[in-house]
Amino acid sequence: MNAVFPGSFDPITSGHMDVLTRAVKIFDHVTVTVMHNARKQGRHLFTLDERLEILRQATAHFGNVSVDSFGGLLVDYMARQPGGVILRGLRAVSDYEYELQIAHLNRQIGDAETVFIMAATRWSFVSSSMVREIASYGGDVSEMVPRASAGALRQKFADVYAEREAAQAGAARSAADQTPTV
Q1: Residue 88: which of 61, 119, 66 has the closest Cα?
Q2: Sheet containing strand 84-90, strands side by side
Q3: Residues involved in catalysis
Q4: In a domain, 181, yes or no
Q5: Binding site for substrate: what residues are annotated?
Q6: FRET partner for 10 with CA separation of 20 to 30 A, picked from 2, 42, 55, 145?
Q7: Which tens digits make up the pLDDT trace of 40-60?
Q8: pTM
Q9: Domain, as residue range, for 32
């Protein structure tokens, strides 16, 4: 059986990777697919092509994962993926209520089944939007995202990271200068 793991992946996080790592052991093949919504154009930090490239890099070590994108209804995409189920990751109970509603709609309008995998507790607080916010201030997100996402975020916010690192280096020099000698 195959699974389709849809999302915006702006960028992919360690929580997404945790769900995917467990899914590849359950399903014969998993397609990670970036949802492309023309109405949300300009709301993403990364372009569609950038997100696809980050995903390809982050998932390259999996032998049974492919990366794709689609626009429109997920059930229409699923109709072109015979024998597949929708894979969704859950972080908390609050995610479940929303995802359950979407799962029921997908089954109602397109006869598409959804399988949920809970992200590990250590990733329950991590979301793409929070990662983007921390990175926009030059914060360290390397534990919250795969290497490909961390590199892309660092590149996207290069000026902020350079400024923060310069300030930290200056503070360290200042503290060293004020250390009394005996």
Answers
A1: 119
A2: 65-71, 29-36, 2-7, 84-90, 114-118
A3: 16, 40, 91, 128
A4: no
A5: 8, 40, 74, 88
A6: 2
A7: 667 899 999 999 999 999 999
A8: 0.88
A9: 2-124
